[in-house]
């Protein structure tokens, strides 16, 4: 039973608009409504607010609410990242793509130092082999001419073992390989195939441009006209200077007398002797391309050396960390004795 001055069970004080008889027994309320001279107006209480009736224990605190908000935002960010990786831009299978790790990353993380070194060296060898295959593809017509000569050529040509066709094919193969090296075919190992194809097509274009220039120069010489001058096939400051200096020198002579470009003079004597041997007997145009190819080969070798040095540096840091932690292995001790 409530108090006569209207304090309810919830401790709120009564007012003129409150129902003063709401907590009385129904039979007593009916008696008072009949016998009391003062008529009380019954007011229906508004429906309770769901938020106010929620127990305090079930209401999330401020920290929990902020945590839920941050989790929601992080989940949305993960979903957007996953959607960018996924083939479905609408975010389907986001819970799978958010934790996806490519197989190449897993294999790279589990490789030993020896396997990493082999990958670098095998990659360099594979690029050299690809240069040979690309040169053969560009010289498919010359190779077909050799095959046709052996199959259905003239008897005189076959008796000479198709010398002219073989010579044309050999020159095509060597020059195509030089153009590929000069254009940077050895430079990187993670290049998309489209770039390799563009380099291969450009090398073939430069080779046929060189053949056209040689044909025009020969026609002018046979007609007694001045030999026309052509722009450099490999336009650059270094190659232009090298070609200009090469035109003033004889194409033949001892290998020790063949000069090298300025940027190759600092190499070891044994390496310089090999480079001079490669430049011996070349025409000025071929010499220019060969010098550019040699420079790109040296640059590719330096790149491989840097990658190998980086692997050794990481190995040394890991070995030093194990030594500091007292977890040095038997292999670490043996490598330290030999200075590895």
> Termini distance?
94 Å
Instruction: State the major sheet.
Output: none
Task: Count the beta strands.
Answer: 0
Query: What is the SS-derived class?
Result: mainly alpha
Q: N-to-C SSE series?
A: HHHHHHHHHHHHHH
List segments where confidence is low: pLDDT < 50 over at least 5 consecutive residues. Answer: 8-17, 51-59, 237-257
The coarse overall form would be elongated
Round the Cα radius of gyration to an integer and report it: 43 Å
Report the β-strand fraction as a percent range.
Answer: under 5%
Mean pLDDT: 74
Number of helices: 14
> Roughly what percent helix?
55-70%
Task: Describe this entry's structure for a reader.
The chain has 340 residues and is mostly helical. It is 63% helix and 0% strand. It has helices at 26-35, 50-53, 62-85, 94-97, 103-109, 113-138, 140-152, 155-159, 163-182, 193-222, 237-247, 269-279, 284-324, 330-337. The chain is elongated, with a radius of gyration of 43 Å. It starts with 25 loop residues before the first helix and ends with a helix.
């Amino acid at each position: 039973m409530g108090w006569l001055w209207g304090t309810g069970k919830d401790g709120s004080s009564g007012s003129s608009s409150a129902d003063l008889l709401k907590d009385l027994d129904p039979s007593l309320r009916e008696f008072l409504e009949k016998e009391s001279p003062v008529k009380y107006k019954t007011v229906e209480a508004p429906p309770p607010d769901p938020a106010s009736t929620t127990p305090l224990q079930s209401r999330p605190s401020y920290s929990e609410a902020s945590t839920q908000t941050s989790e929601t935002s992080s989940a949305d960010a993960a979903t957007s990242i996953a959607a960018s990786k996924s083939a479905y831009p609408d975010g389907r299978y986001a819970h799978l793509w958010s934790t996806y790790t490519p197989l190449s990353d897993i294999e790279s993380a589990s490789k030993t130092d020896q396997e990493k070194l082999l990958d670098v060296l095998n990659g360099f060898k594979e690029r050299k082999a690809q240069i040979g295959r690309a040169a053969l593809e560009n010289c498919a017509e010359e190779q077909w001419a050799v095959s046709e000569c052996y199959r259905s050529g003239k008897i005189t040509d076959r008796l000479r073992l198709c010398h002219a066709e073989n010579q044309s094919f050999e020159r095509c193969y060597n020059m195509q390989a030089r153009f590929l090296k000069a254009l940077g075919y050895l430079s990187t190992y993670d290049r998309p195939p489209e770039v390799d194809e563009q380099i291969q097509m450009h090398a073939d274009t430069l080779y046929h441009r060189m053949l056209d220039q040689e044909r025009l120069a020969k026609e002018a010489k046979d007609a007694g006209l001045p030999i026309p001058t052509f722009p450099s096939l490999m336009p650059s400051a270094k190659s232009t200077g090298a070609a200009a200096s090469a035109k003033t020198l004889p194409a033949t002579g001892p290998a020790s007398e063949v000069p090298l470009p300025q940027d190759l003079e600092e190499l070891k004597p044994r390496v310089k002797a090999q480079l001079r041997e490669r430049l011996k007997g070349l025409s000025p145009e071929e010499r220019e391309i060969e010098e550019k190819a040699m420079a790109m080969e040296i640059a590719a070798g330096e790149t491989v050396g840097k990658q190998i040095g980086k692997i050794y540096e990481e190995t040394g840091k890991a070995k030093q960390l194990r030594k500091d932690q007292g977890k040095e292995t038997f292999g670490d001790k043996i490598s330290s004795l030999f200075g590895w």
